[in-house]
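Human:
Take a look at this sequence-structure pair and walk me through the tokens.
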Amino acid sequence: MRWALLLGALGLGCTAVTGDFSAVVGIRYSGSLSPSVEEEDTLTLSAVALDINGNPLPDVPVIWRVLALATDTVPFEIDSLTGLVTGLFAGTGRVQGDADGLRTPLITVKVIAVPDSIAAVEPTIDTVDAGVTESAVLVTQVFDISPTGEVTALANQSVRYTVVSPAAGTPEAADVAIGISGQPTGTDPLSVVTTTSGSGSAFVTARRVGPMQPDSAVIEAVALTSTGTVVPGPPARFTVFFLSL
């Protein structure tokens, strides 16, 4: 917790301290000086006015304001009375709370981009030769689209690849799998979650793992939010053909 205090000169020893003990002489901000919030999500900044004894004055409002030039584009909105911050688009901005002229430290709020879409990187069709067990790398990219239309590939985003054909539970599905490129197949051979690289790309391969030798597999990929929900929009789609042995 951080305090900003303005105290008048106080008599010490046996001299009694007199005055208005309900006056605001400090403000206490609770939280990080560099908080972050995702686009379309919220966070609440919290501060309280203090009296001369350091006790909270809950009836004194803390007014929040954005510190920006008129020409600046602020990536969030803030409710001046509640401190509720709503992320609008990726970027940073500064805010400060004020209680009767006493101010919190400067707070830099960062809005983190969330994925808007996912796209398959060509080629989206691959043929696995007889005797080969693994496809070429199936690559997707995850993007954020700003209000001005700027497209940015996003690193460290979760992508889920799933085999949608052959259908789970069929004999053919038992002989196909997908896995993160360069790694063994995971516990669920028909679905895997991986993370995008610094270029915003994710990589998996399709594999044939049994004697039935499916002639093809269709794989779809979706981007996930930080809470695990699927980002709206069409999935990326790949088709892999397996030539018979």
Summary: The longest strand covers residues 91-99.
